[in-house]
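#struct-help
A.M.: can someone run this one for me? Single chain, 221 residues.
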Amino acid sequence: MSESPDATRAPRRRFAWLRAASDRVPTKWFAGIATGAFLLATAAFGGLATAAPADLSTLDPGEPHVTDQRSLTVQRAVLIDALPEAGVSVEDGERVLALVVEVENGWDEPLSSTGPKGVAGSFRVAGVGAAEPAAARMDDTTSSPVLQPGVPAELVYAWAVDADAFADGQDVEVTLYDLSLYTGSFVTTGRWWDDPVADATVTVSVNDVGAGVDEDGGDGS
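D.P.: on it. Structure tokens below:
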């Protein structure tokens, strides 16, 4: 049984909404974030190395954070009813918080977009809890893509969140981490990234796009 044209167009419409949302979000935001809020957000991720807020750089949306592992540019945050194309499922009373980023693998080996030792381990979003995000490419919706060295990609990271956890216009802080490269020997072999240390923060404003599809079937762009 073949899919209907509307079913096959839905993923493109929702991803188009994620792109279109950038036109409604200012490129600069005030950098003043309460110290207490930062500490509470960081404490939610036990085991992560932390630094005093005064030691962290403050970046604007669209400004890259570059480490030996990767270059990561936080573009925008979008609240949407559902985003199965990114590999995230929602239950009753949940919506999806999506973070759109540009990533370039700065390593000399392929790098996973997901997992604590991949790109996903190099940032944390306040308010989403400890759940690992789902990830997909924006151009072709490939789920959990592996990034090749030196090849930039636009990705969306997505979390299922309580429907009232975030609101349109709400500022959300993203903490960016620097990971160290380890090389195994004897019992453990290979190379991997670990020991995240907080290095910078960027604050984005949430844009609520509803279902991500207009009632007339358009993509809102």
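A.M.: thanks! The mean pLDDT is 81.
D.P.: also worth noting: The CA atoms of residues 51 and 143 lie 33 Å apart.
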